[in-house]
Request: fold
Amino acid sequence: MKRLILAAFLVVFIAALGCDSPNGNGVVQLDGPILESMDADGNLEFNGAVINTGDTAVKSVYVVIVLKDQEGNVVEANSVSIFDEDPNALLYPSERAFFSLSVSSDPNRVFSKEVEVYYEDSQDSQPSS
Reply:
């Protein structure tokens, strides 16, 4: 029961975190909460979605999770591309993409989590017909 309560608290906590981008305009954002679970090996796993809220396509979209201890020191950071490393893939306006990433840190050492979304602008703003 304690794990269930802790998991529910962590989902709400992570959902409240903001996004950041190197462009500073927040065009690619989290789309809903990030769900946190523990896999069979005891690793924390984060699952969620991002959405392009802008008017142009973007490329090289990465989601970064930064875990910190109680003193604010980085315990672990990990990132994942939403395109499975396809350098030509684009996230078009209003398009959503899902992500999943795992970290191996001891959950008991993690005091806070930060989520950042990074991307690059693309010259191609419309899907090809």
The longest strand covers residues 58-68. The chain is about 10% helix and 45% strand. The first helix runs from residue 2 to 15. Helices lie at 2-15.
